Structures are given as structure tokens and as C-alpha cells.
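Objective 1.3, modelling of assemblies. Example input:
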Amino acid sequence: MDIENLDHYAQLILSLAALVTLTSFIMLAQGRLLRLVFIFALQGFLLVLATAIAAYSFNNPHLYISAAITMALKVLFIPWMLRRHILKLEMHRDVEALSNKTAIMMGGASLVVFSYYVLHPIMQDASMILLNALSLSLAVILLGMLLMISHHQAIAHVVGFMSIENGLFFAATVSTNGMPMVVELGVAFDVLVAAVLFGIFFLHINSSIDSLDVDKMNRLNEVDQ
Amino acid sequence: MNLLIAIMQTLLFISLAPLLAGWLKWCKCYLQNRKAPSLLQPYRDLLKLTHKQPVVSKDASWLFIIAPYIIFSATVIAITVIPLITVDLPTAASADMIVLVGFLAFARFFLVLAGLDVGTAFGGMGSSREMTISSMAEPAMLMAVFTITMTASTTNLSFAIEHILQEGLVLRPSYIFALFALILVAIAETGRIPVDNPATHLELTMIHEAMILEYSGRHLALIEWASQLKLMLYGVLIANIFFPWGMAETLSLSALGYALLAIMGKLGVLAILLALSETLFAKMRLFRVQEFLSFAYLLGLLGMLSHIILEASR
Amino acid sequence: MIPAYLLLILPLLGIVYFALFGHQEDVGRQNTHFNGITLLLSLWLAFNVYTSGTILSTDSYFIVDSFNVYLIVLTAFVGLTTSIFSAPYMAHEKEIGKLTDKRLRLYYSMYQGFMFAMYLVLTTNNMGVMWVAMEAATLATVLLVSLYRTPESIEAAWKYFILCGVGIAQALFGTILLYYAATQFNQSENALMWSVLYDNAALLNPEILEIAFVFMLIGYGTKIGLVPLHNWLPDAHSEGPTPMSAVLSGLLLNDALYAVVRNKMLVDGATDSDIAGYLMMGFGLTSFLVAAFFLHRQKDIKRLFSYSSIEHMGLMTFAFGMGTPFATFAALLHMTVHSLTKSAIFVTVGHAAQIAGTQSIAKIRGLIKTQPKVGWGLLIGTLAIAGFPPFGVFTSEFLVLLATMHSYPWLTPLLLLGIGIACAGLFRNIQPMVYGERPEGQQAVQANLWPVMIHLAIVLWLGLAIPDFLSNWFTQATILISGSAPL
Amino acid sequence: MILSLAYAAVWFSFLSGLLALLIRQRQSVIALLHYSCRTQPAWQQRLDAWLEQSIYPQRIQQMSFALLGSAGICAISAGVSNLISQSIITDQLSLGLPWLPWHVRFDSLSALFYLIIGIAIFAVSCYGPGYVKENNEQEHPFAVLGLFSGLFISGMLLVLLADDAFFFMIAWELMSVASYFLVAFQHEHSANRRAAFIYLIMAEVGAIAIILAFGVLASFSEGGTFTFEALRQASLSATWASVAFILALIGFGMKAGLVPLHVWLPEAHPVAPSHISALMSGVMLKVAVYGLIRFSFDLLGDIHWQWGVTLMILGAISALGGILYAMMQPNLKRLLAYSSVENIGIIFMVLGLSMIFLAKGHPNLAALAFIAALFHAFNHALFKNLLFLGAGIIQHQVHSLNIDEMGGLIKRMPHTSKLFLIACMSISSLPLFNGFVSEWLAFQAALQVDVLDNAVLRSLIPVMAAALALTAALAAACFVKLFGMMFLGLPRSRHAAKAEETQDKGILASLSLLAGLCFLFGIFPGLMLNLLENVALQTLGHGLPNSSAAGWLWLAPVSMQQASYAAPIVLILTLIAGGISFHYLRRDPAVKLRHSDTWDCGFGGLTPRMQYTCSSFTMPFRRIFAKVWRIDEKIDKKSGNMPQQITDIHYQLHIEDHSWPRIYHPIEHSVNRIARLVSRMQTGNIRVYLSYSFFTLIFLLWVIS
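Predicted structure (C-alpha cells):
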């Protein structure tokens, strides 16, 4: 079944999903931390929209709650915290030199294809929206990991981590109309705590190696020089 | 009766041994155009030694003093099991060829210890070389022995000889090899040229003499006598195993006398051959001895294989 | 069901209590008391299960069956003994000024937090909650790893945090897929209840479950420390305070494996292919062998034993992967003996490190001459963990070998190679530490070695004879997991 | 009854271990005893007097050794009674796995080895108290020594009782681990630590091989249970049977010290306390032999003659290699350890012979060889214990194990030297001693090759026999050297010059016991052979070819015509000959012995340094068998101011075993190399770690779909 004979909500959700993926791509290529955080917030926002629409279309009230939580956490709190740290540690000026962006982008693109390739066979019976949404969210997850692999700023890692969370959340929302409430809350709680801990760690790391470059943290290796 | 014969022939053996030594010396002197001492010279020497007062080093221990007796009696045991003139020897059953080899080793063990006991350099040297040579010689000898025992399928000497006698004259390739192996071993074990030179003292290559340097008086006599016994023992082994003819199969007096003559004849011939070889060959370096003995071992092995391959029933 | 609830509530109280009063003098003993009570509760629970079989709470949020109840008891027990050990240890750390009151508060309250997370993982019936609890365990321990605030410890904590976070995220995706598969036939809230899923596992869509299992395995496997996802483990173990290493090795890894096995049961129920088993066997064997080689190059005593933990977890994963009753029984037994032995070893290691004032293997010398109890404890513990009889580890390894020889004979040489290499790797490092003359000015520390003795005694006992109630227990669990009893 | 005796032996040895733990707990022990007899104050006084502070440790030592002794007595009586009654007793202990309790089986084979162990530990228990008396309690706590000795011995005994693979392995490893601790007992020397490490690792590898062997067998037995009963029923294809056999050979050979798996043995045996080395070398190796016999003859069942050939060749290599290595050792205990390798080699050779006969369908001859092997095992236990215990005494006196620092001890230590001489004579298999009898039997068996139809075997076996002869001769050379250098000549060191004969009755008693047994079984081998025949009857189902083989006087294994040996007669004849000559020559009082300086061809000025040393004695052998060792020989001369003048000269000789550079170093290096490669993984960069999990995920997903 093709996209034109889906209802508009579904089309909207799909396009939002596409946009979410796009934001991941942008983040992947983004060297400046402040912009990175901003785009991350944007991704969160798109996610909230998608959730809200899903909640409305499937008239599934508790999705509103999770949308609200996401709004609070991923759009407001975490970006705000990250931004504060960036400014405090005066990292808003330095640009991360990413080694061969194009290759990374190509890799990202192939990841999208790959996630379709993985999920396609098992989604035969499922609706097309579901297939796309799931594949895109998987793509977002993988892109998040790729982001962490390619960037070597601790903050970028956090962003990557959180965007993985976004992907998961999106998957949960569209595929299963959200997890059971307890799980949602639990996940949200974990994310919150994690965010706080990240904040603490930035300070510690900065005090110990006076930068947030994770490549500098390789004391604990076993390769004999 | 048998037992009597056994005792008698042992005594005969013991008493004849010096004579053989004397005869051998006589032949050598004759071959080397020297004036030979009388055949009875060895007896005289032994007698003289027994009456001399033995001098023992202060550093010597009890082992040094009892060693000669042990050596002598071990050799005597060895000879009690070898049929000299008559085939069926009751004592032969009490110890077979392997035990015989064992007793020779027994004697050697104490000889070597005695050599080490006083703590002279000569003693150590002699002991070390003696052990080297004997440990090379022993497997060679056992190879030869095995060849014989396999054909006769017994390790009991009197049975073995009986078997060979009954078989009559059979030309076995294995026996030829075994014979040569045994001869080489005998030369090495009795310390004759080209392995060792019995006639020398104070020569750095000497072996047997080096060990008994410290001995004197009756102890020396016993050791000398034991080595003469050993020489004769090997002679008798070779003579009676490979050329058993003439041995007394019945216990008639004539047969015994005939057998006595026969064995003396055989030993005499062997002695002549030995003297000849000792005159012709020079003594070889110590580390050539090992080649000499491994050749003996090889011969023994060949004898074994030829028995298995050429002569075996299956 | 009451004990189960109490079991969860008590640590929660503990978190708060120690967060407030964690700096008092005898806080160590209080912590011990908390854990002691939880142990009693767990025994009570165990008794209930033993008498009346699987218990499902009324709201079916919690399930206690013979598989997890023995893990609960184990957790409570190791938690208790470790807290006994940690009391003097932490006091000593405070004396030498490595820790402040604030950090002690954090330590004790997080200790309880960790215990809570463990109990939650074990008791919950909801796969989602299991995930949440697992993540919570990470969050609880990550601050403890960086407790000393040294650059190394911070680095270790960061790696632990990021790697486990990312890993566990995969597990969540797996859970979502599982939930999706469940919602195909059951729209209700409790679609994610393990009991429900298990009862109609046959209805689940096999392809989805296989994909889901891959994510689960990657996710929880990161926490188990399966090669090549293990990199955080040695760092976290070596840099945190030793009691933490003890519970991490002894409990956290077990529980992660527990989660994987629960999921494997579902996958096996859904599909008739053994793909899940093969994956686990592959990971397990790789971890087993690679870790064995790692042992040869360790310079830090705690890293050494964390690698040995990886090795043993690999072995268990392998055994569970094989899935035959024998193998499962062996794996269950191995879980027990390994966590007992390993936590005992970490106790002695902690004291050894305090005696020498360092964790570097090159500097720890002559323990037997300095403090015989510690030295012998370490030596015997190492013997036990290296799989020498008559200790229990030998029994379980023997059974694993036996099972392997039945199902996959050509794999046994690999296993045996691993065992041999690991034994050599352990002893080439342990021997110089325990033997030899005592170095200058090395003094004995005040230590409480009862935990070690108790643990090793139990392991020895298990090696000589498995008591009936325990073997029945394992047998029931085996039936639950692999469908039939061993012989 | 018999079984309870057997259990009692285990219990006693175990208890002696536990008792040793009390050596530091005087107070608590006293308190306990007071409590236990609180009614009789008189007893309490007596107790206090008896356990008085100063002698308390000695009391404990004596008691723990006394327990060992009773263990020995129980073991001996259990063994002998079962050997006579030829009964098979089975039992089950409610230990072990829920579905596999420990199975116990006590048959003639076990009984024989019980007897061996029993004799050994009885001797050790007499020897021990005197030996450990001056042991420094602070440096080397007796608690450790005693405990692990007890565990070690009970482990060995349990191995013999085991009737299922699981129990067997536990007992086996108990034995290994306990002995490991004993090797590491004096762990302040790095050499000991190294030895212990090598020992432990090789023991582990061996155990693994054994487990594999059992596993192969078990996977062919129905139900895959591990009881020996089930394993006996297992029906294997020839290849799998051979695989199992090879694995077992590796495993047990590792423990028995088969070349080239022997390297741990010369390291480990010397560094343990002497009575422990005696047990390890004299008895533990026998347990390994037992294991191989149990596995191949009993469990595997139908023997293939190829196995026999393998065993023979390996045995020959070990025998020759062992004795040649032994000959070069200047260290007394290392030498003895290597000679154990040699004797094990001999035992394996003869076992191989027995296998060949069995496979070729001549069970009686097989029984003959089997009995010869067992008898040699028994004898070796006797004289090797004797040698090691003697070595212990001498080490105490000379404060060194280096043979070149001894000499002249025969005058200082008359008793020890006599007993040691007996041991040397038996081990170099001279007639009238037990070592000879077993080799004689082996030769007799070898000489029966005519019955075989395979020409290769018919030519191989005699060659092996000759190798055996060479071994015996070399052994004689080796032990002549040993005795000569240790006891004869002039003392080579200060300690040797003022060595004292040990005063301890127990020590001499134990040595005399062993020496007496050596002589007894040399003269009356029939006593032992009849028992051994029962073992053969039970294990192989056949006895000796000649029913009246072993009378009290005659020894005619095959038939009277074939070969016979009457040690008593020979002994009498020797005595007669010796007596006559002695009497005849001593009759004249005029010719008394005169003592004077050593003649030495009149050179005079003899000093101890002029004597032959070990290395000079064995020089010809070094030249002849040069390929066998890795010899580096260094002579550096300092030349003086005159031409050709040598002021002083240094001689260094270092001899190494080939198996290290050829086999073990490569293994070690490869393990290290792989470890280095693997550890590249741990780069320390978190992004790399992330990419690991990333690619793992990708890979798995790709695999799945």
C-alpha cells in the first residue's frame, strides 16, 4: 500500500520521521557544539510533535503524557543543561575537526538503507507506516552511535547518547503506541538521572584532563608502547 | 653325582684359569720373539701374593677390603653356571645367561667402587673408563646371547648347548654374527688389546690396571685370579656355545676326560688366535673403543635379524 | 509475596537512610544489618517458593520462580558478606584519607541502591521494568566507580557509563520489538509481562524475536562483559572500591546474564531454530578464550580477576547457549560457585592491595609471610576459580565439558585450551604475590576474613557434594529453562 | 572389613593432616583436653606434663606422623588381604553429583598399589619425626607441611579407590594440588616457585587430557554416565579407542614423567622436603602408572598392538633419556628424579610388551610382562624411597645437594652408607637384589617373541630388550658414580669432612626396613610374584605360563627348560665361595693388614681436589652420547707471564635438557605473542570501543537477516 492512500496523520508522522532522521544526519556533520545541542533540541521537538499527532490519531491519551515528558526532558532540560556546561567550560567557540565528513555521511546513508534491509523482511504483514517508522528509528539509533564514534567531544557523546534515546522513544511511540506507563516513566527517570550524572562527569573530566576530549582519556589501555 | 661333577668342574675351572693366562702369555712372547716365562708363572705369582702382607691405604674404607672377596666370589658364581666339560650341569638351572651377565656386572660394580675408594686420580680414571666400556659392551653381549637363546629358545646354558649338540652341525648365519659379536665383547670385557693393555702400568690409557693400583697382597691375588677366571669364562662361552662338540653328554669317565682334552684344545686355539691379534693390532684410542663396541652391537643386531628373517619358522 | 515486597522496600529505605546518616562511625555495621535482614527476607521468600512453587504477585508485576529465587538468595548472601568485608575496608580507606564523609554517604546509599536495582531486576515480571532496573544498576554504580576521583577512576566510570548506556539502549530497542511482537496478539497493558509472554511464546513472530534477541544480546551482553563488548569491565572493576568490584563481578554480571537467559527462553519458545543458542555459544566461547589470553598480560591485580570474571561469564553464556539440560544445570551451578568464589577473591584482593598500598601486581609480594590468612585466602581462592577440585568450580566446569562433549565434541579442545591458558595466566601472576619473602616495612592490616572462609567453605562443599535441596532447586530451574531435567 | 581398612587408611592420613594444623594452638588443645577429662585431675597433670610447652610441637609432629604410620599399616593390611583374597569390593559414598555418587571399587590392582603406598608412607612416618625436628617453625610452618602431606596421601589413596571418572578426577587433582603446595613449601627460593608453577601447569594440562580421554570414552557409553562400569561397556571404533588411549597416555604420562613430558619432574622433586620427594618420586608416579593400567587394560578393554609399540618406544626413549640426563646431574635429588624418569620408562616399556602379547593373543606371556612391570613398579617404590630418604639425611649433614661437595662419607656415616649402597645395587639391577628380578622377568618376556607372527615386532622387541640392557648398564654406571662420589674417596668439602651419622633411631629404622625389603624380595621374589599373579588373573584374566612359576626357591616363569633363577641357591653359593676364599686367605696371622699412605704410583701429595669429580667421571659418556644433551662447556685459562704458563684455569659445564628449547619455550612464546595481539584490543579509546559494539551489532543483524 502506498503513501497516497494513507491518512494525513500517517503521512505527517512519516514525514516527521524523515525529518528526525534528517536532524540526525545534520548532527552527524555538525562540528560546533552549540549548534549540535540546538539541533538535538530540534530533533526532540519533532519527536514531541510526532508523539502528539500519534496520540491524537490513535486517540491514545497516555501518549500525551510521554510527549510532555519528552518535551520537558529532551527539548528543554537537557539542551539547557548542555548549553550551560558548554558556556561554563567556554567550549562554544572551538570547532571539532571531523575527519572525512563525506565518508561518515555516506556511512550514515548506508545505515538507513541497512536498517530498512534488516527490518523489511519481518515487517511483511505490518503496515507500511510501521515499517518506515521502525526502520527510521533504528536508523536514528545507529546514526547516534555513529555520531559518538565520529565525534570526540564528551558533550557530543552525550548528545549522541540522547539521540539514541530519541530513536528508541520514537520507535516505542509509533510501533506500539508507547510502552506501558511504568516503563515510560522508568525510562524517563533513567534519562533524567543520566543527564544529571553527565553534568557531574563533565566537571570531573574537565578537572582531571582539563578538556572534554575523550581521546585524551586513554590511561587505561593495555597496548604496550 | 651330578652335583659332584658340578663342584668338580667348578674347581677345575678355577684351577685352570691361571694356566690359560700363562699359555696366552707364552704364545705372545713366542710371537714377539721374547723368552717366555714358564706356563706355571701365574700360579707362582698368585701364591706369592697370597703370602705377602697386604698394604692398605689409610684413606681406604671397609669396602676396599671386602671388595676383592666379593669380586672373586661373584666371578665364581658366574662360572658355576657354565658347562665346561659336561652338558647337563645342575647348577646351570639356578642361574641362566642373563644372571651370568648380571654377576659379571656385580663383580664390576665392586671393582669400580674399589677403584674410587682411595680417591686417587688413577682410580677414578680407570673406574670411569671401565664403566663406559662395560655399559657399551653389555647390550652387545646380550644381543649375541639373545640370538643364541632364540634359536635354542632357552636362556639356560646347559639346555642351550644340549640343543645345539642335538641339532648337529647347522650353519646358521646368525651364529656367525653372534660369534663375532661375542668375540669383540670378550676382548673389550677382559681388557685385552686393542681395548686395553693388560701388560702395562702407569700408562694413561690403561683401564683395568688403573683401578687396582692400590691393591697388594692377597687382595691383588684375588682380583688377578678373578680377571683370569673372567678371561677363561669368555673363552669357554665362545668355545662351548659355538663349538660344543666333544663335550661329555654322558657321565662316563672316558667321556669326561675326552671332554677335558677337547675344551683345553679349544681354549688353546682361542688363546693362540687372541695372542696373534694382540701382536698384530695396536691399542686404539679410548674414544675409538665406542665404535669398536657399537660394531659389536651391530653384529649382534644383524645376528638377531638374520635369525628372525632368514631362519625363523614363520 | 510479602517478603518480595519487603525485599524491595528495605533497600529503598536504605538509600535514603544512608544518604542522610551515611557518615556515622558504625555505618558499616548498619549496612551489614540492612543486608542481613534482606538475606533473611530472601530466605523466607526462598522457603515460600520451595514449598509452594512459582509465585506470581496479584498484580502480576512480580514473579518469583525457582530460577530467580536462588539468584535472589545468592545476591542477598553476597551482598551481606561483601558488606561485612566493606565495613573495615571503608574504615581503613577513610583513615588513610582516601575518602570523605560525603563520599562515604554516597557509597553506602548507592550500595543499597545497587542492591535494590538487583532485586528489582530479579523479581520483576515486566521486561521493560527489568530494563529500567538494569539501567538503574548502572547509574547506581557509575558514581561508585569514580568514588576516588582519580583521573583513572573518572575515566573508567565514564567509559562504563557510556558503553553500558549505549549497550543497554540496544536492549531497550530489543524490548520494544518484543513488545511490538507481543502486541500483535495482545493489546493489553500486561503484554510485556514475562509470564504472559512465556505462556504464549509460540504466538510470537519468530523473525521479530530473533532480531529482538540480537539487540537484547548486544545490550545485556555489554553488561555481562562479552568480548568484544567487554572493554568497560576491567576498567570499572579495577578503579572502583574493592567491595564494589566484588558485587559487580559477583552479582551484576549474573543478573545481566539472567536477563539474557529469560529472553532466550522466549525466543526458544517462539522459534524452532537454535539461533539464539548459537549466538550465545559464539559470544561465550570468544569471551572465554580471549579473556584467558588477556590474563597473561595484567599488571593490576583487580584487572586480572575482572578478566577472569569475563572468562567465566563467557563459559556460562556458552553453557546456557548450548541449552541442553546438563549444560543448563552446569551453568546454574557455575553462576553460584563463580559469584561466591569471585567475591571471596575480591575481598582478599582488597586486603592484599591495602597491605601493599598498591594494586600493581609487580609491587605485591610475600603475602603469606606478611599476613598468612590473606595470602592463603588469595591462593586457595585462585585455585578454586582456576577450576581445581575439590572446589565447586571444577564440578560445574566438568559438567560443562561433559555436556559439550555430548553435543559439540569438536568444541571441547577449545574449552580445555581456554581452561589451561587461564590457569597458567592466573598463576604466573598470583604465585609471585603470595610466595616469597616479605618486602621491607610491609605490615599486616586489620581484616575480616570470615566472608572469604565462608564463601570458600561453601564452594568446597558444593564441590564435594551438592545438597539435595540445592540440586532439586537447580533441577527445577533447569526444567524451567531447558524443558527437561538432567538425567 | 578390607574396605573399612582401606577407608581407615584414607581417614588416618587425612586426620594426620588435620592434626598438624594444631601445632600453633597449644592453649586451645590443652583447654579442650582439660574439658574432656575434667573429672580426672590426675590425667590433667599428666597431659600438661606430656604436652609441656617446649616439646609440644614435637609431640604434635610425632602424633601426626604416628597417624600416617597407622595409615600405612592399614593400607598395607588392606592391600595384602585383598591381594590374597582376590575379592572385588564395591561401594558408594553419598557425595559428588546428585545423579552420580562417588563409586568406590577395591580390587587386586588397587590393592597392589595400596600396598606400595602403604609401605612407602609407613617408612616415611618412621623417618619423618627425626627429619622435621630441626625444621624452623617460623620459616616453614609444620602446619602447612603436615596438612598437605596428609591431603596428598589421602588423595593418592582415593585415586586407587575411585570407580567413576568424576571421583577419580577429584582425587587425582587433590593429589596434584596438595603436592603442588608441598613443592612450593620452601617458597622463598625462586627456583622452588618456578618448579611449583611448572608442576601445577603441567598437572593441569595432564588432568585436562585425562578428562578428555574419559569424555571420549563416556560419549560412547550408553547414557554417557561416568561410572567405570559404564565406561567398560562402551564400544568404541578402533580410531576413537586410539584417540582415547593417546589422550590417556599424554595425561598419565605427564604425571609419570614420560619423556618429553617429564620436565616438571626434575624441577619439582628436588625442591620438596626429602620425605615428600620420596613419596612423589616413589609413589605418585606409580599412581600415574596405575591410572594408565586402569584406563587401558581395564576400561578400554581390547588392546591394539600399535599401542603397545607406542608405549614401548616412548618407554625406551624415557628410559635411555632419563638415565643419560641423570648421569649428568651434579645435584643429588635431581639425579634421583631423572632416574625415576628412567624407571618409569622401563615400566612403560614392559607394559607395552604386555599389550603387544595381549593384542596378539598370548595372554599368558602378556601376564608375564604385566607382572614384570608391576613388580618393577613395586621395586622402584622401595629403592627410590630409600634413596630419597638417604638423600635427606645427607642433605642435613652436608648442607648441600651437590655431589661434588661430598665424598668420604662412608667413614663418617657407616649405617647410612651401607643402606644407600644396597639401594644403589638394587636400582642398578644387580643380582641378589629386587631390581634385578623384575628386569630378568622383563627379559624373559622379551625373549618369547618367537611366538609372534609379525616379523617387525619380532625384530623390534629384541632391540628394545637391548635398549633395556643398555639402560641397566648406564644405570649401573650412574649409581656407581653416585655412590663413589658421595661416599668414597676423600671429603670434598668442609661440611662433608665433619658430617655425622644421624642419631635418630626412626630414620635408620625406616631406611633399614626399605633396604631389608629390597634384599628380601631380591632373594625370595616368589613371595611377591604370587600376589602379582593374582592381580594379573583379575585384570587380564590369565596367569603366568608356568603354573608353578614362582616357588619359594625357583623362579621359572615360562618353564624350567626355558629359564630359571634360584636366588637363594645363588646366594648360598656366593657365600660359600666368599667364605672359603676369605677363610683360606685370612688363616695366616703373620700377614695382617698394614695401613699406610696411599701409594698412588708413588706420586704422593694427594689432595681431595685431585679426585675425579662427577663431570670428569662422566666425561666419556658426554663424548659418546654428545647429541643427547645441550652441552656448553667453557674452559678459560689465565696465562701467566711465561709463555705456555697457565696461572689458573676455570672449567664451566652447563648441561640442559633438549625438551625445553625444542618444545616448551616455543609454547610459552606463542602464548605470550597471542596474548600481546589480543591485548591490542584494549586500546583505551572509548570511540574504538563504541565502534566495536557498533560493528558487532551491524554484523549480527546482517547475519540474522
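Chain B has one domain: 2-311.
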